[in-house]
Amino acid sequence: MKQPVELIKDERMREEFSSYLSAKTTEEKSRIVKEYNERFSQLSEEEQAKETAAIMENLREVVSGVRDNLEELDGAILKKKLGEVPQAISLSYIAAQCGKSKSWLSQRLNGNTVNKKEARFTANEVKMFQDALHELGHKLLRVSLI
To answer: What are the DSSP calls for 37-68, one per residue?
Structure first.
């Protein structure tokens, strides 16, 4: 999982942002912002427009990377919450309840690479998986041995 600052492609911007993030005091942060603003104000309008466009492009990359990180964390959290459940129940049964194959479910639970991309659950698929687990849980609770 990459840190947001690592997603900034432009080396100068990455260094400036890193120095801002590593600043310990408000005064340090203020000084860094002031220096940047002074440098920016000395640029021509065309250079300011290019700088602004570059900042926006880098921000898009950071936001995209943060979204990927969140999806990765969601998958890790789901796997941790499940604990030993996948070993205790039939994944084929759960997958069938979701209208999917056991391999499809296994790929997402394990974060396997499929078609050069990490397989992940969408929000709807997480809900579908959760509903299938709840349904199975209710069925198990209704079983009476005596």
So the answer is: HHHHHTS-HHHHHHHHHHHHHHHHHHHHHHHH
pTM for this one? 0.53
Identify the residue whose tokens are 């690479």: 113
pLDDT tens, the chain, 146 aa long: 678 788 888 888 889 888 988 999 999 999 999 999 999 999 999 999 999 999 999 888 888 888 777 777 777 777 788 888 888 888 899 899 999 999 998 888 888 888 988 888 888 888 898 899 888 888 888 886 66
Give the residue extent of every domain in the chain: 1-82, 83-146
